[in-house]
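Incident log, structure service

09:12 report received: a user says their structure output differs between two submissions of the same chain.
09:20 pulled the input from the user's history:
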Amino acid sequence: MVGSLRGSGYTRNMFELEVRRTFSAAHAIIIRGEREPLHGHDWQVELTVRAADLDGDFLACDFHALESSLEEVLAPFISRNLNETPPFDEVNPTAEAVAHFIAEEMTIRIPTRVELCSVRVTEAPGCAARFIPSVKPSLVALPPNSQPSVHVGNSSRLERTKS
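09:34 re-ran on a clean worker, output below:
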C-alpha cells in the first residue's frame, strides 16, 4: 500500500477539501422593508470542493490555488461597507447572498478537476448561511437506460434589487 491508494469501492467524489478565510466588513440588510442599522462582522468563509480522484501528486487540488482564488474574491469586501460594494450596492447583503456570490465567483476560478460543494458564510457565532450549488446533470450517476431529469427554474444568478 506504500506509494498508492487502493480503491475502496467508492467511485465518485471521494475527496473533499476545505479552505477558510475571515474578513471584516459592515452591512445593513433590509428585513421586511426596513433597513437595519449599519454594523460590522468578522465574516468567516468556508469553501468546500470535491474531486473524484487524485492527480499524479496525490492531490485533489492545490490548497494554495483555492486560497489564492478565495482571497481574490474576498479582496473587494475587506474593511468595506458591503452596501456600497458591488454587487451588494444593488443586492441585499445578507449572509445568504454573500455565500451565493462567493460560490458563483469561485465556480469560475476553481480547477476543472474539482467541483464546488458549498460555501458557508458565518457572520456571527451560531449564525451561518450555506450555499450549495445544483448538481450538474452530467455529474450525476444514472441507472442504465434512464433519462436525466432537467429542472428548469429561475437563474442561479443573484437578482439585483433596489431599496
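09:41 both user submissions now match this output. Likely a transient worker issue. Closing.
09:42 reviewer note: Residues 137-156 have pLDDT under 50 and may be disordered. The beta strands are 15-27, 30-31, 34-35, 39-51, 80-81, 115-124, 127-131.
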